[in-house]
Sequence to fold (191 residues):
Amino acid sequence: MHIHGYTFGQVASGAVSADELGRLCDSVLFGDDDRAALRRAGELLDDQIDALLDVWYGFVGSQPHLLKQFSTPAGAPIGDYLDKVRGRFGQWVRDTCAADYGDDWLAYQHEIGRRHARAAKNTTDGADSTAYVPMRDLIALIVPITVTVRPFLEGRATADDDVDAMMGAWLKAVVLSVALWSQPYVADGQW
Fold:
């Protein structure tokens, strides 16, 4: 399988099923209205993604415990690694807003989770950094990755846009992503 320039082969077999995704969507109250709201958010965010990533990278860079995940064992940030991850992070925003959560998307979410966990951290970019991103940080980052989107939506919204609906859909989509990314961290049978 080939997604966003990456070939997955056997990795996709570990991805959650469409039925499991459906149950997760039910758990976070994610429905067709949310898909529509995300698509509209994507239209508003598309040419602002670099600016949004500047905000997110500024936040991560201001938090030593987060920046550590992109740094050498000696503590020096790895610029090339940060740049490569940034490109994929921007694509994640686009994919999330596209709200096309099919099998390829599920496989890629599984791969994103692997790249945060011990299973594959650093392997894609050959980085000499931490062995994994602590799951607690993935969970905690739901807040800044969510609340910082509002100004970007409000700055482009029209009178017909429901920014609250877009924000609600974004939050649900971020929680959904993090729930999927947690799978490689969890012992067999407990996810």
About this structure: The longest strand covers residues 2-3. The radius of gyration is 16 Å. Residues 90 and 182 are 20 Å apart (CA to CA). Residues 79-98 form the longest helix (20 residues).
